[in-house]
Amino acid sequence: MVDTAALLSESLAAIAACDSSTALEEQRVTLLGKKGTLTEALRTLGGADPETRKTLGAALNQIKEVITDAIEAKKLELAGRELDARLKTERIDVTLPARPIPNGRIHPVTRVIDEIAAIFAEMGFTVATGPDIEDDYHNFTALNIPESHPARQMHDTFYLGRQWTVDGEQKNNRQPSTINRPLLRTHTSPVQIRTMQNGKPPFRIIAPGSTYRCDSDITHTPMFHQVEGFVIDQHTHMGHLKGCVTEFLKAFFELDDVPVRFRPSFFPFTEPSAEVDIGCKRGKDEIKIGAGEDWLEVMGCGMVHPNVLKNCGLNPDEWQGFAFGMGVERLAMLKYGIPDLRTFFESDVRWLRHYGFDALDISSLPGEL
Ligand code: DAH
Fold it and tell me: What's residue 174's pLDDT?
């Protein structure tokens, strides 16, 4: 005959004595496993008389339940204790140097955009973005680019979809637009418009992003990148533009005395407009940025045209500003000596291994300003 009271107290004592999850699991098998004490005890019921079977059966099943609960509770207690112990021993030493990631490089376009953003962040600029799919109004009209401007001609701009004239007649894609057609933005300048439409001046933003033109040869790819910069405030003048651009170029090319030249030019959205050249020396197979007898064009800039301000609801007598735009691939080629533009987008991992950057090699440029 099974001594149920002893069975219960001995089982509970054994459970309480377990000092690890492994020991507890062993104990569970000893008690409740196929050949466990309790299982064996339940098996003896078969040979017992009906009355005993009834009372003993009920008692044993109750004990089984109590033991199962006790094991569950102990399991939780041990797991908590073991986790605490592990956390104490497995401390992460954050001062250890990180392990380099063997695969994957940062593309020079990403790197240069990060560098540009870091330099302008130091000057108090924030990053703004706009959509790659723009419309005629934001990409051209609002920027004071008249209908007859060459940039509007089909061979430069990727127009999207079919054009519908106002009377509903469908025209083919090559006809000049009379309505606000969707297109792939040909420059990042429309972000100026969106920023002014959606916010309140003063503004000090840069807008990096992809741009698209229907052009492909050694020096043009249908998709490329630009960074637009623009400042709107109440007493902004050309001196601010020159200082800002010059400081940027010094920081970007990591040169203290890079010669910078502002050459008069024309952009419909700025007046006056200028192109910015930096000094360089041309060797046989390389261009060295810095003092030299040659000049290299690196960006366009100017004072924001009053018409652009008016188009965005700003009074040009109250607000003025300057803007500039630069090609990211061009700056990357000059800074890192990458000879061929088209290789940027060939997705050749050997190229990326050579010209790409380590993910952990964070640019330290801004601190050096
Ligand atoms: N949007 C011009 C382009 O794609 C670049 C540019 C020139 C932007 C002068 C400007 C600017 O903001 O002031 O060629």
Answer: 46
- Specify the pLDDT at position 93: 82
Name the residue at shortest CA distance from atom 5 of ligand 1: 325
25: which 2 tokens?
A: 């699991």
Q: Which long-range contacts (CB under 8 A, 24 or more apart) does 210-215 make?
A: 210/132, 211/184, 211/185, 211/186, 211/187, 212/132, 212/158, 212/184, 212/185, 212/186, 213/156, 213/157, 213/158, 213/186, 214/154, 214/155, 214/156, 214/157, 214/158, 215/155, 215/156
Pocket test of ligand 1: the residue of 120, 189, 240 to mutate, having most ligand atoms within 8 Å of its CB, is 189
Domain shared by 119 and 52, yes or no: no
Answer whether residue 97 is part of any domain: no
What is the distance in A from the centroid of ligand 1 to the CA of 302? 8
- Ligand 1 atom with the smallest distance to the CA of 301 is 13
Has residue 101 been placed in a domain? no
Residue nearest to atom 7 of ligand 1 (CA): 300
The most confident of the ranges 2-16, 115-129, 288-302 is 115-129
Pocket probe for ligand 1: among 324, 328, 330, the residue whose CB has the most ligand atoms within 8 Å is 324
Question: What is the 3 CA–ligand 1 centroid distance (Å)?
Answer: 94
One-character DSSP codes across 318-352: T-EEEEEEEEHHHHHHHHHT---GGGGGS--HHHH
How many Cα atoms sit within 13 Å of 310 on the Cβ side? 9
- Whether 16 and 129 share a structural domain: no
| Whether pLDDT at 172 is above 50 | no
Is the pLDDT reported for residue 176 higher than 70? no
Q: Give the closest residue (by CA) to ligand 1 atom 3.
A: 187
* Ligand 1 atom at minimal distance to the Cα of residue 270: 13
What domain count does the chain have? 2
* Domain hosting residue 51, numbered range: 4-89
The pTM assigned to this predicted structure is 0.69
Find the residues whose C-beta lies inside 6 A of ligand 1: 187, 189, 228, 267, 270, 300-302, 323-325
